[in-house]
Amino acid sequence: MPLSTEPFPGFSEALLRHLARFRFRLRPGLPGRGVGEHLVRKGGASVEFSDFRTYSYGDDFRLVDWNSFARLDRLFVKVFRDEEGFVLHLLLDRSRSMDWGKPNKWQFAKRLAAALGYVALSAFNWVTVQALPDSFFLKERRGRGMIPMFFQFLDRMPVGGSLDLSAALEEYARTHVQPGLLVMLTDALTPRGVETGIKRLLARGHQVVFLHILAPEEINPSTLGDLELEEVEWRDRLEVSLDSFASRTYRYTFQNWRRELEGFCLSHQVPYFLLPSDQTVEDVLLKRLVGVLLG
Amino acid sequence: MILFEQPWFLLSLLALGFLFWLYLRQPRRQKQIVSQVFLYLRARKEILTRFHRLRFFRNMIFFLQCLAVLLLGTASALPLTGFYPLLGYRAVLVLDSSLSMMTQDVEPNRWEQARERARQLGRNLLADGGEVALWELNQDPHLVLDFTLEANDLDRALNELAPSFSACTPAELLLERLDRWAGERMLTVYLISDMAFEIPPAIRISHLALRPQPIGTPCGNLAIVDAGWQLDRLWLKVANFTNQPRTVQLQVGGNILILNLEAEEIGSLEFQQPRTASLLPISLMEEDALPWDNRLDLTLPLPPRVLLISSSPFLESALEAAGNNVVTIGPEDYRSEISADLIIFEDFLPSSLPARPMLVIHPPMNNSFFAWTETATLVIPQARTDPLLRFVDLSQIRFLRVPSLDPPAGLVPVVLGGETDILWKGFLNNQKIALLAPNLSSSSWPLEPTFPVFLANVVRWLMEDDLLHSTNDAQSGILIEPFNPSYQGRGTPWGLYGIDRADGLSLYTVAQPNEQESNLQILADVKQFGIRSAPPDLLRPITAAFLITALIVFALEEVLRKRYG
Questions:
Q1: Which residues of A114-132 are buried (b: 16+ CB within 10 A; e: fewer)?
Q2: Is B6 in a helix, a strand, or coil?
Q3: Are B497 and B482 in contact (CB under 8 A)?
Q4: Which of B31, B35, B38 faces A232 most closely, judged by CB atoms?
Q5: Which residues of B sit within 8 Å Cβ distance of A?
Q6: How far does the CA of residue A168 sit from the closest CA of chain B (Å)?
Q7: Which of A5, B148, B277, B516 is in Cβ range 3.0-4.6 Å of B153 for a Cys bridge?
Q8: Taking the domains of chain B in order of start, what are their residue ranges?
Q9: Distance from CA of A15 to the nearest CA of B (A)
Q10: How confident is the model over B205-252, as pLDDT tens digits?
């Protein structure tokens, strides 16, 4: 059911109705939490038939398959799949570098996080939001009733601060032991890289998804000339003279960096998505994430 | 050598200075906030290896910008090539090589000084776009170098000149030579000599631009340095080269004039032109060691010979009052062979118009040139601004009857009259003509003071050397027939030949009428004669070439700028 309260800024009712039909595609074996709508492999009480097994003492007679007993003269009981909830960890990079680009990366990331959280909460899953740097944290929430509060939290979250992303991920892995689906929304623009942090998260049993959010100007810079570049996050300065060749060299360097990052993610079975901020949330969800993260 | 039609547009090249200033100035780098710099740092090593190439292309951009500005500035100045618009300045350097030139009162001697003077003079004249010829004046005066535009030719001729230094009387030889040049207009003769002779009074030096260039130790202390006339006033300039004030007595014709001069002063004197004299000898009463500059023979302009076919006493008296040489005859005595500078017809026109400038007053009703049948009454004149009406006020003049003339094309009205016009001027059959329609007895104008002024204006206009009268009709490629009314019958071999605008440039060619067209010489450009030049033709080939090149350079610069910032 779509939410009757005011939706997240920029979200239409139609989009929310669409999102409510999505379910996350989880890695088999991902630990669940509580009752939910997510089917797990192990036996449970749902109506989804899973398997037969030989009757053993103490089994519920209501689960005995009497048709098999009539044919084979042996007792078998039916096993059904269980429905559990899971925890969606939204790690949202709110460092100053995210507040850049046209369209703004931060606004894009918040909308994307809101959409993913809405999908999870609509299916009675747990959602927790961790802003990096970590002064903003939303404790695990569950159920559709939490959607307005979730939206409000995201909407009011400010951008700012400097971030060592890898260290922040390591810290998150250390402090949040409940494994779940962990979606990182970040530009990963940090010289130290993110590899160590992702490894720590994987070691904790998280199913990690890397949504790499970049502005079009970062992918393909168009400004040429004699420039004094000042980094928005660390205030580092660099004087460059950009001509078309230098611009091409930058693009080549950028592609190498991105391929390294993507290669690392693929080698660790972390789905990687490069998402330019000039895309719409609808396009990202329906064309990029469906089939991999959503189903 | 490239000349320019609009040379002041070359001032636009000052923009080059601005470009240099921009180039030399170290501009602050544009500050830009970015989300990261570490990727730029990784790429920087690659970028730095390209720095020299980048600098080369930036210098190339600057060079192309300068080149584009240079080409545009040059194109806007409308460059002219293919001909040299001479200033009509032709000069003959006459180098005296008589024995006295061997005098060594100056180092090394007068001859070497004269040769150096000729060299410098010739270079200056050639630099101004003139033509220079060189003559040697000795026992056998001869042409050393024909008219040339090249300074090298003159230098070579001067270097190879080996004078004979024979004793001779240069004055007579000079007289003979000057007589041969007397008919040539725009010719200046520079006589480079020690002036150890007296120029005979018979040499009409005022008709010829004779510029003595004395060589050697100055031995005179007083000199008549210049003379001329303006309207009926003559002026004279006398120099006192001494360091003492002098009172100079001058004999002008039969009169004695006195002029007080301060030390090293050139004083001037004005006096009325004698009515009858045509050659006015002027001399200093006090002779000094250099006699040639103590005398001057001023040839005065002869008064126009006016043939008046009229019975009006107003016309004759007014013309004579203006100093004209008037011959009055009746219509029955008119013959086309009668010699005159201009003819005035009143109430009469011959069957064929004479080949002279003329003023026609009230032509008869049934003439074949200015026919009329009707008469307008009580016509109030409305004068236009015109040289014919200078100092002529017609506001109080009324004409009782004015024939309604229909003048042929070529005449433009000068005084309008409502129903019919009163005065026209223009050209008819290549002759200057002024046409006054009303009968003089139909108004009180002949009794007014403005009437003789008007006649004087008409005579002056008719006698003017208006060589370029037909340029208004000149079109590209049209060759105008030889025509020089003012000089016909005066023996001058030069005249305006035509106007050629075939190539988009206005050239005025002057030729000797009895020579072939191949001998045409370009003498002057359009501006010298005061004719408005042709509108700037941007598609003139050389201008277009400059513009197109500039555009190509701009395009190239734009490509480089986009590529290399």
A1: bbbbbbbbbbbbbbbbbbb
A2: coil
A3: yes
A4: B35
A5: 27-44, 46-47, 50-51, 54, 57, 562-565
A6: 18
A7: B148
A8: 3-20+42-78+540-564, 90-299, 305-463, 469-514
A9: 31
A10: 434 456 667 776 555 577 776 676 665 677 788 878 777 888 888 888
Per-residue tokens: A40: 């797990």
A228 close to B (CB below 8 A): yes
> B29 and A239 in contact by Cβ < 8 A?
yes
Residue B126 burial (10 A CB sphere; 0-12, 13-18, 19+): buried
Asked if the Cβ–Cβ distance from B27 to A226 is below 8 Å, we say yes
pLDDT tens digits, B146-172: 888 888 999 999 998 887 776 666 666
List pLDDT tens digits, range B460-472: 888 765 433 333 3
B90-299 belongs to which CATH class? mainly beta
Chain A contact set for B564 (CB, 8 A): 243-245
B218 touches B312 (CB < 8 A): no
* Record: contact B47-A249, CB cut-off 8 A: yes
Grade residue B552 by pLDDT with cuts at 50, 70 and 90: confident
* Segments of chain A assigned to CATH 3.40.50.410: 13-28+85-289
> Could B31 and A230 be called an inter-chain contact, meaning their C-beta atoms sit closer than 8 Å?
yes
B39–A253 C-beta distance less than 8 A: yes
The whole-model pTM stands at 0.43
DSSP string across A27-95? PTT----SEEEEEEEEEEEEEEEEEEEE--TT--GGGB-HHHHHHHSS-EEEEEEEEE--EEEEEEE-S
Residues B47, A227: C-beta atoms closer than 8 Å = no
The alpha-carbon gap from B23 to the nearest alpha carbon of chain A, in Å, equals: 14
The beta strands (E) that lie in chain A are given as 35-54, 76-84, 87-93, 126-132, 137-142, 181-186, 207-214, 225-231, 237-242, 272-276
CB contact under 8 A, B32 and A223: yes
| Per-residue model confidence (pLDDT) at position B471 | 36
Residues 185-204 of A with CB under 8 A from B: 187, 189, 191
Q: What is the CATH number of domain B305-463?
A: 3.40.50.880
Mean pLDDT by 10 residues, chain A (295 residues): 59 87 85 70 68 87 89 88 84 92 92 93 91 86 90 91 90 89 92 89 93 93 83 84 81 92 94 93 89 85
Q: Which fold has domain A13-28+85-289?
A: Rossmann fold (3.40.50)
**Dihedral over Cα of A186, A187, A191, A194: its sign:** positive
Contact B354, B336 (CB under 8 A): yes
Chain B positions in Cβ-Cβ contact with residue A187 (cut-off 8 Å): 35
Quick one: which of A119, A115, A137, A117 has its CA closest to A127? A117
